[in-house]
Design brief:
Layout: H1 7-18, H2 25-45, H3 58-65, H4 67-83
Length: about 90
Amino acid sequence: MTIHLPNDLESRIQAAVQNGRIASVDDAMAEAARLLPREIDQRQQEPHAGGIDLGPDPFLGSMRDADDELDQIVADAYRRRREDTWRDVAVE
């Protein structure tokens, strides 16, 4: 069997073999073949909101939607940190 992978995946698998995390490329492909049916079955069992695939993590998506608010929170935290005078104590 001949398998054609994108260069980035092939590089990652080769690196894992060289690092000793995987015994061989054949072992990596066998493991991938074992995991794929499980992944397909799992996806079929997960409920989707109105048939829309929410992606791997809907929570992260909501964080992306609130990126301006998160930026303001972080900016405020940095501003407060700079204003804290107790941080300026000299330590010898």
